[in-house]
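To: structure desk
From: M.T.
Subject: fold request, one chain
Message: Could you run this one when you get a chance? Sequence is below, nothing fancy, just the single chain.
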Amino acid sequence: MANGYIAGRLLRKVYIFEKTKYMTRLFYTAVLFLATSISGITQQKTPPAFVMLEDVFVSADDPRFAPLFDTLSSNGKGSFIFDLFEPFLSGNSDAVADMEGTIHVTVDELKNILFQKPFFEENWSPGDEPDMNEFAVDKQQSLKDILAFRLYFVSCFDSNMKLISRSFVGLIPMKSLRDRNNEFRGWKRTLYLSAKNAGVQNVLSKNCTAAAFQKTSYLSFLNQIPVDELAHEAHYISLKKAASISDNFPYELSSTSFSGSPLTIASNAKLIEKTARIDINYLLNPIMFNNFFKLGNGPEKIQLNYGIDCSAFPMFFGDEMYGFLSIAQTVYTSISKGNNVYAAGEGGVFDERISSDDVKSKLWVCDTIEVYDTITWDTKDTVVCYSKEFAASRVLLLDNGKNILPVAICLEILNYGDDGAIELYKPFIWVPVNNQLISELDSYQAYLPGYPQQMTLWGYLLSGMYKGNIISERPIDNAEWQLMREYLK
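Reply: Done. Structure tokens follow.
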């Protein structure tokens, strides 16, 4: 999503998983055949048209996953869960809470997460519904409350969304929360354990302790799980993102070939100002938010085709969490790194240069609001600062006869009506598509769900695949082009 353009994120849903009706042995016989087939396909090294991050929830209630929960019968050294946490509890490995490795967890924090039991107590306030207050009480150190996992896989697909390969990349052990009456209150995340971590790799290389799987390593067991048949969620990710979270992802996105702006232009060359707009069908669509869910077990696959044109998506959408940026985000990053900025006024595109500080001061708004204090029941004035919503949907193009070259990109401020619909796109600034901006655009993959072309944002702009309306066009001669080229260096 464009920076400051779409507010909020979808909350992740808690899945309700059905208990299996199949026998464990029969289940894994089919799984092993599937895994073997996928492995054979993987060896072909077919370049993927799409890559997805898949997130599967498995719990100890399902006997098919019993090998992952041997801690239930033994909490001693050698159990899968105990061995997973041991390098982090001992301080031999750095613990993190997120896949990106940005949220670090100390040993003491980890012990609090694992070994303190929360309970809940109703607190009645006059005229209010009862609140649930959470308290932490020390308990005997045990890992028997780790009763579920979130498992993460990087999956590659061809242009027909046929599976090429699927690899396990990490997991989050989930702690079961219960109140003093032993009623289930939900799940608590602990650590993200990457399969790239040496300590985790050592545990995954060991054979399962469960009798029926003693000749199967934990890694093999995890890679045999049939994700498609289980409730799960999925997200498109970039090739760079996939490589960053996996230790065996062999693909990378090539930079876009570009020989530079032409020294001279054709006699019939012209400047075109083109704009793209958001389709109302984008709103609240899983493709826009890059969130796809399968809520129950069964043979059905996640729906990915929603019948909308996504060709303009990179202009507006791109979540860095999944390795994408929008054109607007990339332009703003370029400004933050010192790229030249010009006011979008009545004159020419490059007539009035302004500073990046001026841009930031005009984009950010501070308001004073009344905030209610839930403890004292008082209100107090609080200053809140936020960014205006903006998009990069207007592009100045050079049509040189044989090809079309982006020359400048306009950031526009968005104004909304009472019904939440966009009423006005107000041109704010122009940023030249110079070497600095091209470098930024070429370092991020365009978010193009449903399109098998893997391309950078720069490649996307050069392709001209985004649709839009032509606002204006006029001839440009060689003398004017020579002046304009100075801004594009």
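Reply (cont.): Residues 270-277+312-488 form one domain. Let me know if you need anything else for the meeting.
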